[in-house]
Structure formats: C-alpha cells, structure tokens
Amino acid sequence: MITKEIPSAVRDCFGKGAMRRLRAAGKTPGVLYGAGAQALALEFETKVLFSELIDLQRRNAVITLKIDNGTEKRAVVKEIQTDPLRDSLYHADFLEIDVDKPAKFTVPVSYKGKAKGEDLGGLKSISQRSVVVQGKPLSVPDELEVDIRSLAIGDKISAGEITLPEGVTLISDAGTLCFGIVAP
To answer: Phi and psi of 54, rounded to 5°?
Structure first.
C-alpha cells in the first residue's frame, strides 16, 4: 500500500467567512474522523495537499498526518471536495485507522501481457477490474497484477485464482469470473 506524509495544523476557525479567508490565504480546511474520538478540524497548505493527493486519486493509501501539536495520526482519504470552476481543493476528509487491525479494501486488478488466445483471434473479456480483500492496511497491495500470457481461447481467471500477498485474504466471492479469452 502507498504511504504518504502530509503536514497539517489544528484549525480553530469555523464558519463560511472564516473558511473563505482560510482558502484565500492558500490553505485548505479538512477534518479527521474516527478512532472513537471527536472529529479533529485541520488545515493544510493547499499546494502541499494537492501535490500529495493528486497521485493518490482512487487508490488505497495510508497517510500519516503530521499535526503541528506534535502528534501523528494514520488515516485514509475519505472524501476530497474540489471547486469545479477553479479546479482547486475545497475540503478534505480523512478517516483515522489502526494499521495493526485488519480492514477491508477494494484493490484494482491489472491484467498484464498479451494472451496466446488473442494471437489466435480470441477476444479479451474483462469482467472485474477490482476485488475486495482484507488485511492489515500496510500489507494490502496497491494493485494486484495477473499475468494472462498463457491463456488460450476459452480460458478464464476467477477471483480465487488471483495470487494474494501473505496476510491478505479474499473477501470477494472466489468463484467470480474476472477475466477470460472468448472465441470471436
């Protein structure tokens, strides 16, 4: 899984006017939820937050929030709100996680190579582009790669046939068809 560190500060201003002034000063408001505690209002430098989150879009990542009061919190991105007119960050929500407890994650599956069956006129049939797995957050891969080069026409790969790292288990139905080479 991808890991990132993002600096932040505890936010003490609230309300529409205060948020406008905060954004005008080059900062983005955010909130950290979870761990049974009250939500923590944070602020981030917009340029830093944008550059760190741009490559994490729609990917699983554990983010270490380095808060200015000396604490560090591990979290995942819950939601990012953007201003569609200005193409800028508007607000970020994070969900605190315990990296020692297993959790469920949706992991994308990428199919690598060109199947033998394609050379013989077969067509790729991708049924699933992701699977749900469970494991400790730092053990879960960012992506699962499946080598399809040996597949002939009529061959299929189900979710249960995808190789998972140690400590990670499949939650999706093992019989779910993920990929196949079909006759034209």
So the answer is: -60, -40
Contact of 73 with 6, CB cutoff 8 Å: no
Consecutive 10-residue runs of the chain (184 residues): their mean pLDDT?
Answer: 82 84 85 83 84 75 85 85 77 86 90 87 88 89 88 89 89 89 86
Domain that holds residue 132: 103-182
Same domain, yes or no, for 108 and 26?
A: no
3-state secondary structure of 153: coil
Same domain for 61 and 134?
A: no
The pTM of the full predicted model, rounded to 2 decimals, is 0.74
Which of 35, 63, 96 corresponds to the end of one domain? 96
What b-and-e string marks burial along 12-38, b requiring 16 or more CB atoms within 10 Å of the CB? eeeeeeebeebbeeebbbbbbebeeee
